[in-house]
């Protein structure tokens, strides 16, 4: 079903990583089978966005294209095969677009074209443009319906009183939820999160609390950020990454044994000592989730893994089923957003202010969030 869409709309375009992004006028996409056109209200800005679009992170993507990320929007028009989505509905746009005939071919819309021939086909063709735009086209299955009345409704009327920019924080929680659900974090377990002082790392601490971990050991180098995390709950304790593998392992062991180690290291942490300290502190049958962006060959002691029955699992993003389960944590209030979660919106920027948005996001730490509101 199609509603009134403007003929044109504004969007941010990346022409090449060597030149600044530009706000341009585009034809508004039209809905077709299997997709919806959504009016973007607020799109998430990740801490290292600047380094993605200036080429420093060397993420592959087609050029030119409209960058973006997960976003909150309102359905403007839907294709003829939409069965429940209707214009006006509030949705979370999930940037993880997968091949319908091969879900392992995945792109992150607006961020990276993935690493297979199939995923590249998705981003060089139908799903080239993302959410730093007034209107964007997304697959129907990536438009996750949100309970607007409950989430945005005023607390005096029984709602949670969030704004669209608060809902964008779902993104920093969903990523660690994917890994934590994959390794089956259970209520009552002790988990080590490292590094915990970044945006997704800090998100992992909050998600682990909501999933019922009895103790969350937040590891990081930044003592001020660790202090902020320990203020979240008396179930959070902190251990500094000092660079001394043995000493840090002993500090962890005093708090353990831990059942789970969740790693969300950025590429720069490839040489960090925390991998081995955390693995050493796991109890028998400990589980390790790798979700970081490390591009390095890390070693481990084979016999140690075998004798202690350790297991390790990598996770890129999350599945649609995990999103639907995760939303229950938000709806129920078990995982709060915004001020209630110690998170502050540091900036809500227009499309023209993209540079400032990326700069503020890079400095926002574990407590700050930034959105682009086109
Ligand atoms: N698997 C997935 O689906 C997925 C999804 C999104 C992101 N990621 C990956 O997750 C990574 C982390 O995301 P984020 O949002 O938490 O990043 P972030 O906000 O940039 O934070 C980076 C974290 O890494 C720490 N760090 C940086 N250099 C370090 C080093 N040399 N040794 C130890 N710690 C170091 C920082 O601590 P300091 O404060 O001490 O600098 C901070 O805690 C990203 O870079 C990305 O590659 C994976």
UniProtKB/TrEMBL annotation:
Location of the Alcohol dehydrogenase-like N-terminal domain: 32-147
Residue span, Alcohol dehydrogenase-like C-terminal domain: 201-331
Entry superkingdom: Eukaryota
InterPro entries in the record: ADH-like_C (IPR013149), ADH-like_N (IPR013154), GroES-like_sf (IPR011032), NAD(P)-bd_dom_sf (IPR036291), Zn-ADH-like_protein (IPR051397)
Gene Ontology cellular-component terms listed: mitochondrion
MF-aspect GO terms: oxidoreductase activity
Pfam families: ADH_N, ADH_zinc_N
Gene3D superfamilies registered for this protein in UniProt: Medium-chain alcohol dehydrogenases, catalytic domain (3.90.180.10), NAD(P)-binding Rossmann-like Domain (3.40.50.720)
Name assigned to this protein: GroES-like protein
Source organism of the structure: Gymnopus androsaceus JB14
């Amino acid at each position: 079903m199609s509603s009134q869409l403007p003929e044109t709309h504004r969007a941010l375009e990346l022409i090449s990583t060597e030149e600044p992004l530009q706000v341009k006028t585009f034809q508004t996409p039209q809905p077709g089978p299997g997709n919806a056109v959504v009016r973007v209200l607020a799109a998430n800005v990740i801490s290292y966005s600047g380094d993605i679009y200036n080429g420093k992170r060397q993420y592959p993507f087609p050029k030119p294209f409209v960058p973006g990320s997960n976003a909150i929007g309102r359905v403007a028009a839907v294709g003829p095969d939409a069965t429940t989505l209707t214009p006006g509905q509030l949705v979370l746009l999930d940037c993880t677009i997968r091949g319908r005939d091969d879900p392992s071919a995945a792109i992150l819309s607006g961020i990276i074209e993935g690493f297979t021939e199939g995923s590249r086909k998705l981003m060089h063709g139908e799903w080239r443009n993302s959410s730093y735009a007034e209107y964007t086209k997304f697959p129907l299955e990536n438009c996750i319906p949100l309970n607007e009345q409950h989430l945005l409704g005023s607390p005096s009327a029984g709602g949670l009183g969030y704004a669209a920019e608060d809902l964008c924080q779902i993104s920093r929680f969903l990523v660690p939820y994917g890994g934590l659900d994959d390794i089956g974090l259970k209520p009552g377990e002790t988990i080590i999160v490292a590094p915990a002082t970044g945006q997704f790392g800090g998100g992992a601490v909050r998600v682990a609390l909501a999933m019922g971990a009895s103790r969350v050991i937040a590891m990081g180098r930044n003592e001020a950020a660790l202090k902020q995390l320990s203020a979240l709950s008396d179930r959070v304790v902190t251990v500094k990454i000092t660079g001394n593998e043995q000493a840090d392992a002993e500090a962890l062991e005093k708090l353990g044994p831990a059942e789970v180690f969740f790693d969300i290291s950025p590429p720069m942490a490839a040489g960090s000592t925390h991998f081995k300290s955390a693995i050493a502190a796991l109890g028998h049958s400990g589980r390790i989730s790798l979700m970081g962006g490390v591009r390095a060959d890390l070693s481990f002691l084979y016999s140690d893994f075998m004798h202690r029955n350790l297991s390790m699992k990598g996770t890129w993003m999350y599945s649609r089923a995990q999103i639907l389960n995760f939303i229950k944590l938000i709806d129920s209030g078990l995982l709060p957003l915004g001020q209630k979660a110690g998170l502050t919106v540091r900036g809500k920027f227009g499309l023209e202010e993209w540079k400032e948005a990326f700069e503020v996001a890079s400095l926002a730490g574990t407590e700050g969030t930034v959105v682009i509101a086109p």
